[in-house]
Amino acid sequence: MYKFSIGIPYLTKIDSGFFIGHFSGIFVNTNAIIGKNCNLSQGVTLGKSNRGNNKGAPVIGDNVYIGPSVKIIGNIKVGNNVAIGANCVVTKDIPDNSVVVGIPGKVISEEGSAGYINRTEYDNFLKEEI
Question: How confident is the model at residue 124 (pLDDT cuts 50, 70, 90)?
């Protein structure tokens, strides 16, 4: 489905708390898996690689912030509580609680995504409804 220059197929596995901060230029492969409270910025691509060591689609953990124009292509595992900086190209798995920047992406700290994740208040709302 494409709307507002965003392509996220309805078969894509996306957990609760998914948030798009700015529209436009976001493309997610059908086989990508996105965990809870993932925040995507404009220009993000979560793409599939059809060959090589990284054949497959990305798996994104919980509480992950993905900055503007980030590219994650292939069977890349992004851990929980990760922040990925603008224009980063992720070519390797990212461990939990990492901050990643650059081309290719490199871990520069273990401070994680605290303070970057939006729209997590739905958990309390859902508990009150039950």
Answer: low
With CA atoms as reference, report the closest residue to 95 among 115, 74, 69, 77. 77
- Give the Cα separation of 41 and 112 in Å (integer): 17
Give me Rg for the CA atoms of the chain: 14
Are the C-beta atoms of residues 33 and 13 closer than 8 Å to each other? yes
| CATH value at residue 101 | 2.160.10.10
35-77 per-position pLDDT tens digit? 999 999 999 999 999 999 999 999 999 999 999 999 999 999 9
Tokens found for residue 23: 């529209």
Question: Considering only CA atoms, which of 73, 86, 74 is closest in space to residue 45?
Answer: 73
Count of domains forming the chain: 1
